[in-house]
Amino acid sequence: MNKSKILLSSIATLAVLNVQSLAESTTLDSVDVWETEVISSSLNLGKDVIETKQADHLSDLLRDLPGVDVGGTHSINNRINIRGLQDEDLEITLDGAKVQNANMFHHIGNLLVNPDILKKADIQVGTNSIVNGSLGGSVAFETKDGKDILEKGKNLGARISTTYNSNDSIGGSLSAYGKVFENADFLIYHNYINKDNWEDGDGTETFGVDGKINNTLVKFGVDISDTQRISLSYDRLKDKGDYSPRPDFGREYNEARTGFDTFPTEYLRETITLKHKLNLGDNLLLDTSIYSNENELERYEGPLTSGAPVRPGGLFEGLLNGKVKTVGINTKAQSNIETGDILHTLTYAALYDKQTSKVTWNGDKYGDNESAKSFALFIENAIDFDNGLILTPGIRYNYYDFDGAYGEIKDNKITYGLAAEYAVNDDLTFLASATTLYKGVEMVDVLATNRIFVSDNSDLKSETGINKEIGFRYVKSNVLGADDIGFSFKYFNTTIKDYINANWLAMTNEGELDIKGFESSFAYNKGPFSSLLTYSHSSSNFERTGEPLKKQPGDSISLGIDYKVTPRIDLAWESLFVLKEKDIPSTGNFIEKESYNVHDIALKWRPQGVKGLSLVTGVDNIFDKQYSSHISENRVFSVGGTDRSTVDYEPGRNFKVTLSYKF
Question: What is the mean pLDDT of residues 149-166?
Fold first, then answer.
């Protein structure tokens, strides 16, 4: 069945079911829940934010959060950015497994994550606790579990879903889940996407995007007792297609530089995780993960008709294969201890991982194999004085052992954190924190052409610094005509010393980097109506040169409105406004980043007449605007004496329909 027939079939089904629902009761007995819970520290509203989206790219899920952006339009180019810092400066995990590996290739991203199977995305905007061992924040993804989806009173269940996107893909998923026996459950899930070359808001068709994505997740869990659970999961995502040589660059540059040549490309992630949870209530909550995560990128390069990125030695054509594997274990615990009227909530952990990378060209070793070992211990104590004041001191020991293209670098560093929270009353709370930062030297770009001639540089320093934040949150019921409102504001100042600039030529310390800004949000909820308005700003400056970060975004404003039309119909509107960013590096061919605004609408419906069926339909980029995220590529290069833009424009208007049936 072609895409047009699929869309017509979906519309016809909608019309028939609408007639059925109007003739029946609107009482909602059960709801098919296939949502992603999105929690962001920048909102500070004291409750979870639930978003239902037809997300096939991480930008669909995260871009409207203040301080967060996702760059790259290509499926192999997801790049999460927090306050101008790229994903290599963040701590990113999937079900407890570290999935933020070494930079696979500077023209693609480092993440292969399927938004459809996510149960939760917990985003810490900025490093405001020693629990987080990164420079700019953390993102913890958690996939769904079979027992969470299974309807009460049933032992088995299944779900089928199909999605149509007019611009320009089709896909679907199959899930089976249930109980093997009373205390054991399973989930088997497979998702498939067939994507073609989409058009931007100007009607220009991209190329080198045509490919297929397959994601399989198998989970098995056993409740050993009322207090213990053990689970094993296998997660495999493969993205395969004939892709442009530089997937992060827009059509104009790729066409001018290499014509319409593409490289057969396969990008694969395999993650195996063994988890153990122990819950003894206030006395002890223990969570242990043992994992293996491997990213493999393989592509056949050349020969190109219009010039090629020549490998050292004059190599034009061949099979390039790079693998980065991370194995690790982390054990995190939390305990409550009372001393008089004071409550101590202790959070403590031990973490270890080993990362290795190796590359071959036509089967032969290409550059040095690399390894990096990380070990950390930390303890943090949230001290509640029972008078509105909570003080949270913490200390973390970091050890890092790198053996790679830059030589051997061993390092250890102790970092500290102190946070304060003071509740003036039930409505108003003031917040402040200061956390020192540390990040070891990262591996070289796995597929870069310089990999085989990188010079030793054991003097390369690890990055250190401090992140300071101050703000407040205000949450009150029955005010301004609302059931409740919430307002939050946070100002931050992040200083990073010996900032490492990593590119395909070299890795160097660039001195001190200062990032300042704020995030604010306002929520208004009344009956079936809820809304969230946010504003974020950040600016960066290198002390030595006065230059900003390459991926510094402009100020952004987001507006989300949700309205429950009936118990079975939900309507959502989202708008994102990004202001022009003129502060760009003076070198590197960067150009001013234009302002843009983009608007999406979605409708979710669960018909009364067919239990287990749900339909989500919507329009992305309603007004068909041509725009580019400020953290995507935005430069100009001369090709044949003519300037060519690398701007990575986002897809234009997209009509989408998702039908799912749970039985």
Answer: 92
Residue 334 is which amino acid? Q
3-state DSSP of 33-91: CCCEEEEECCCCCCCCEEECCCCCCHHHHHCCCCCEEEECCCCCCEEEEECCECHHHCE
Q: Which residues pair with 635 in a beta bridge?
A: 590
Measured CA to CA, the distance from residue 473 to residue 430 in angstroms comes to: 7
The β-bridge relationship of strands 118-125 and 36-40 is parallel
Q: Give Cα 8 distance to the centre of its chain.
A: 33
3-state secondary structure of 257: helix
- Whole-angstrom distance, CA of residue 470 vs CA of residue 490: 6
Round to the nearest angstrom and report the end-to-end CA distance of the chain. 24
Averaged pLDDT score across all residues of the chain: 88
Phi and psi at 29, nearest 5°, equal -80, -45
- Confidence (pLDDT) at 31: 39
| φ, ψ dihedrals at 31, nearest 5° | -125, 135
Q: Which segments of 340-406 are extended strands (E)? A: 342-361, 364-365, 370-384, 389-404
Average pLDDT over residues 434-462: 85
Q: Decide: helix, strand or coil at residue 614.
A: strand
Domains recognised in the chain with CATH numbers = 3-662 (2.40.170.20)
To the nearest 10°, report the CA torsion of 454, 455, 459, 461: -10
**Residue located via tokens 């994903």:** 87
Say which amino acid occupies 157.
G
